């Protein structure tokens, strides 16, 4: 998993509450277990018209936001079903950070396991960040995980809280497999002792 230390990029505003995982990645895209290629389906029902053409009014189709790395979204982001394809689709598109006032628990935890930083802020802070994100090509934010702060284009700083263990995992690029591999020497030593004590096994 790619490490997350400091991210500077365009922030796209998505002022919609209760964005569920079906809106993030519709069920039609769930036929694969590959983590790549899902970016094209991200927010598909809002991004595309019925004929498959792009909806020019959707934020990620606007020139200023096509390469957005940060999403500033409404309350209760990631609710609905527990599909891990939702963070996969965000990551494949290029989104590495989502900022909201609250997240659904399963989506929130899935983000950390896939290298995405979900940040919870107050409603007042979200209003400020949403205003920053609406600046188009000038909507650049810097998210510093080590310092636990978001720096806006006007120099403003918003501090955020995060679980220490989740922070450690993102800073070091550790998913569940990576955490297990950190204990590889201990696991191998145990297996060797076990095999020596039970040669018949």
UniProtKB/TrEMBL annotation:
**Stored InterPro entries:** 3-IsopropMal_deHydase_ssu, Aconitase/3IPM_dehydase_swvl, AconitaseA/IPMdHydase_ssu_swvl, IPMI_Swivel, LeuD
Per the record's keyword annotation, is Endoplasmic reticulum included, yes or no? no
Q: Name one Pfam family in it.
A: Aconitase_C
Q: Annotated pathway, please?
A: Amino-acid biosynthesis; L-leucine biosynthesis; L-leucine from 3-methyl-2-oxobutanoate: step 2/4
This enzyme's EC code(s): 4.2.1.33
Which keywords are on file for this protein? Answer: Amino-acid biosynthesis, Branched-chain amino acid biosynthesis, Leucine biosynthesis, Lyase
The record's GO CC annotations read:
3-isopropylmalate dehydratase complex
Q: Matching NCBIfam families, A to Z?
A: leuD (TIGR00171), PRK01641.1 (NF002458)
- Fill in the subunit field for this protein: Heterodimer of LeuC and LeuD.
By what name is this protein known? 3-isopropylmalate dehydratase small subunit
What is the organism field in this record? Chelativorans petroleitrophicus
């Amino acid at each position: 998993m790619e490490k997350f230390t400091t991210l500077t990029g365009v922030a796209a505003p998505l002022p919609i509450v209760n964005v569920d995982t079906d809106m993030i990645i519709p069920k039609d895209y769930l036929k694969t277990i590959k983590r790549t290629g899902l970016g094209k389906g991200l927010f598909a029902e809002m991004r595309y018209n019925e004929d498959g053409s792009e909806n020019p009014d959707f934020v990620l189709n606007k020139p200023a936001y096509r390469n957005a790395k940060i999403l500033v979204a409404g309350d209760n982001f990631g609710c609905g079903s527990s599909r891990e394809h939702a963070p996969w689709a965000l990551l494949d598109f290029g989104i590495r950070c989502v900022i909201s006032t609250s997240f659904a628990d399963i989506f929130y935890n899935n983000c950390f396991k896939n290298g995405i930083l979900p940040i919870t802020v107050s409603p007042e802070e979200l209003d400020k960040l949403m205003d920053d994100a609406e600046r188009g090509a000038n909507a650049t934010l810097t998210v510093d995980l080590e310092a636990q702060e978001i720096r806006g284009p006007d120099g403003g700083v918003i501090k955020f809280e995060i679980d220490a263990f989740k922070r450690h995992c993102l800073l070091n690029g550790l998913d569940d497999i990576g955490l297990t591999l950190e204990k590889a020497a201990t696991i191998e030593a145990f297996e060797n002792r076990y095999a020596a004590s039970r040669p018949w096994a």
